[in-house]
């Protein structure tokens, strides 16, 4: 089967690598250059978007900020999975919040802000601190503001206005003002739903961020009560969207309760550990779902963690001498903070993983990997 992916980054690349043994041929639409490329080699394939849509058996997406006209074309072809309603809900925080409310899934209290009056009403109704997020085009913590005190309000509003003035005006922009959640930790659930409505979910993953960007994900056994709660929320959201493919839910954990932070209608960075830690990786399961193949087992085969390589195109090759340590590069040009690759580390138990992680840390400079001390301490706590 031929699969066209909208977006030609690392997620399309890893889908292509996972699809090859199944004889699935993946090509990708690079939104920036408006060309069709091989997502592994980045070689241009010489067809235009319309031709690629006609050639494909299935069209899917690796990110949610796809221009609406492109989404319409794909939706029109009848081959687009997940559907464009799901992609739009992931790319517009207003639609996302409405979806979560409709599905009856707990999320942070919020108010949509367009005018200055809305902004001050949000402060009054939701209280401080507030997290303000642009409705469109937000990712990796970009397009976000924190408002801690009333005295800072005029400056934050001025900043927001400046951001809105510079935004793409083809779609109405707005801000979602959210109550600040004092969470104990952040976790996420990645799962898949097929066309018949069958659903499978991976074990919950604990996520550690640096400056709003994912740094490390831990997939560990246990946590039955939370897993059940997350699974129910996943099923509610995926069913409400008539979703087909892999979907990720990011949560705040407060005590023993989960609140959905956001959804990602695609394979997700917090699911990269599945390449070494799960029976079937998220990339293969996404392709299986959209191609109408049976879903694969999502069972955790061994405790696994993932470390993102941000802004660096080199790590010591010695990391490959560690047992069950795997390096995945994305073949991208170096830029500060850019997701360049990741490391997956596995072990037969959490205590062995903690030991191996200590060995791995010796090869990763603290300046480039600032979160690793926190994760090491966390792993020792979890043993
Ligand atoms: P990404 O693309 O990396 O998922 P994003 O730009 O889509 O990021 P969010 O996930 O909404 O943005 O927010 C980034 C981080 O900011 C969250 O992981 C969390 O640490 C923090 N954050 C977001 N919303 C809140 C909130 N309401 N209360 C407390 N912290 C928050
Ligand atoms: Mg997020």
Automatic annotation (TrEMBL):
Keywords: ATP-binding, Ligase, Nucleotide-binding, Purine biosynthesis. GO terms for molecular function: 5-(carboxyamino)imidazole ribonucleotide synthase activity; ATP binding; metal ion binding; phosphoribosylaminoimidazole carboxylase activity. It catalyses: 5-amino-1-(5-phospho-beta-D-ribosyl)imidazole + hydrogencarbonate + ATP = 5-carboxyamino-1-(5-phospho-D-ribosyl)imidazole + ADP + phosphate + 2 H(+). PROSITE patterns: ATP_GRASP (PS50975). Catalyzes the ATP-dependent conversion of 5-aminoimidazole ribonucleotide (AIR) and HCO(3)- to N5-carboxyaminoimidazole ribonucleotide (N5-CAIR). Homodimer. NCBIfam families: PRK06019.1-5, purK. ATP binds at residues 93, 133, 138-144, 178-181, 186, 209, 261-262. InterPro entries: ATP-grasp (IPR011761), ATP-grasp_carboxylate-amine (IPR003135), ATP_grasp_subdomain_1 (IPR013815), PreATP-grasp_dom_sf (IPR016185), PurK (IPR005875), PurK_C (IPR040686), PurT/PurK_preATP-grasp (IPR054350), Rudment_hybrid_motif (IPR011054). Pathway: Purine metabolism; IMP biosynthesis via de novo pathway; 5-amino-1-(5-phospho-D-ribosyl)imidazole-4-carboxylate from 5-amino-1-(5-phospho-D-ribosyl)imidazole (N5-CAIR route): step 1/2. The keyword ATP-binding applies. Residues 97-291 form the ATP-grasp domain. HAMAP family: PurK (MF_01928). Belongs to the PurK/PurT family. Its EC number is 6.3.4.18. This is N5-carboxyaminoimidazole ribonucleotide synthase. One of its GO terms (cellular component) is cytosol. GO terms for biological process: 'de novo' IMP biosynthetic process.
């Amino acid at each position: 089967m031929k699969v066209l992916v909208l977006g030609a980054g690392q997620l399309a690349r890893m889908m292509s690598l996972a699809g090859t043994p199944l004889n699935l041929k993946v090509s990708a639409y690079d939104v920036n250059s408006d060309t069709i490329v091989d997502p592994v080699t980045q070689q241009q394939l010489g067809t235009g978007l319309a031709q690629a849509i006609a050639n494909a058996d299935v069209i899917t997406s690796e990110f949610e900020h796809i221009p609406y006209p492109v989404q319409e074309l794909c939706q029109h072809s009848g081959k687009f999975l997940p559907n464009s309603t799901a992609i739009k809900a992931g790319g517009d925080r207003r639609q996302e919040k409405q979806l979560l409310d409709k599905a009856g899934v707990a999320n942070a209290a919020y108010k949509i802000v367009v005018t200055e009056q809305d902004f001050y009403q949000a402060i009054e109704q939701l209280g401080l601190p507030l997290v303000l997020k642009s409705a469109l085009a937000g990712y990796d913590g970009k397009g976000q503001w924190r408002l801690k005190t009333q005295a800072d309000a005029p400056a934050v509003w001025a900043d927001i206005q400046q951001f809105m003035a510079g935004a793409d005006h083809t779609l109405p922009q707005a801000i979602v003002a959210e109550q600040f959640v004092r969470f104990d930790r952040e976790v996420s659930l990645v799962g898949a739903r097929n066309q018949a409505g069958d659903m499978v979910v991976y074990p919950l993953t604990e996520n550690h961020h640096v400056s709003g960007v994912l740094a490390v994900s831990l997939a560990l056994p246990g946590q039955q009560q939370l897993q059940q709660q997350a699974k129910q929320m996943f099923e509610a959201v995926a069913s409400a969207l008539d979703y087909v493919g892999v979907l990720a839910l990011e949560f705040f954990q407060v005590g023993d309760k989960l609140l959905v932070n956001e959804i990602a209608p695609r394979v997700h960075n917090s699911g990269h550990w599945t390449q070494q830690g799960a029976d079937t990786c998220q990339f293969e399961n996404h392709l299986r779902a959209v191609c109408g193949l049976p879903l694969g087992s999502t069972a955790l085969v061994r405790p696994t963690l993932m470390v993102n390589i941000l802004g660096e195109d080199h790590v010591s090759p010695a990391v490959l001498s560690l047992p069950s340590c795997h390096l995945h590069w994305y073949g991208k040009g170096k830029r500060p903070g850019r997701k360049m690759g990741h490391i997956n580390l596995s072990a037969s138990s959490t205590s062995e993983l903690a030991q191996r992680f200590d060995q791995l840390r010796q090869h990763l400079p603290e300046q480039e990997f600032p979160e690793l001390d926190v994760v090491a301490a966390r792993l020792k706590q979890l043993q």
